[in-house]
């Protein structure tokens, strides 16, 4: 019961982050699930896989709750969502293959430098060129593939990449957050299926697991996150845009630092 209450608390935080910043909450969920699964004595060799799979599965529900709240405020740019989704699906499905070609440390380092670069621009108020727009079909497919690859590797909904990319393309901050929440859904669908399928043949997983998705922790996280995501979305439309950018920039610095620490 104590662990289930922890899952509910974790879901509450993830839901607020999803609504406020357009991220799936995986940045919080993955490390916390890793800790709790270890405390519960789950098989060491499967803990990270289960944390990633369960995180992506929770984003299925959190994303829907968040996008509903943002869409009611007309802050989801649906044409961008539809254009980027094929690349997202391709990237998420092929994430494991890409990872086998590159070292994990290289990917973490690249990701960390990118986050530092974007966060610095946001904090310093560096604005993109006014002529910069969302790229065409080929360009946005490539961007979606990159977002999908990283999301599948680290168990997130892609907001740490999609929000900065959309802002870089002169999308308004609130619209970028709302659109990112919608982009998180196809990432979660393809990523969750991948972790379920890859885990079905694995022996020794904890009871009440579906592949690499732990159903008990998923239930606790979802119960809370779908309730708190709309409050996060309300905050996103209440806070001043400059303050919103600074909050997001601090988050990016923290995630980037975590990536670099993981390398060493």
Automatic annotation (TrEMBL):
Its main location: membrane. Keywords: Cell membrane, Membrane, Transmembrane, Transmembrane helix. The keyword Ribosomal protein does not apply. InterPro entries: TM_pro_TauE-like. This is Probable membrane transporter protein. It comes from Desulfamplus magnetovallimortis. GO terms for cellular component: plasma membrane. It is found in: Cell membrane; Membrane. The chain crosses the membrane at residues 7-34, 46-64, 76-100, 106-126, 138-156, 176-196, 208-227, 247-263. Belongs to the 4-toluene sulfonate uptake permease (TSUP) (TC 2.A.102) family. Pfam families: TauE. The keyword Membrane applies. It is a multi-pass membrane protein.
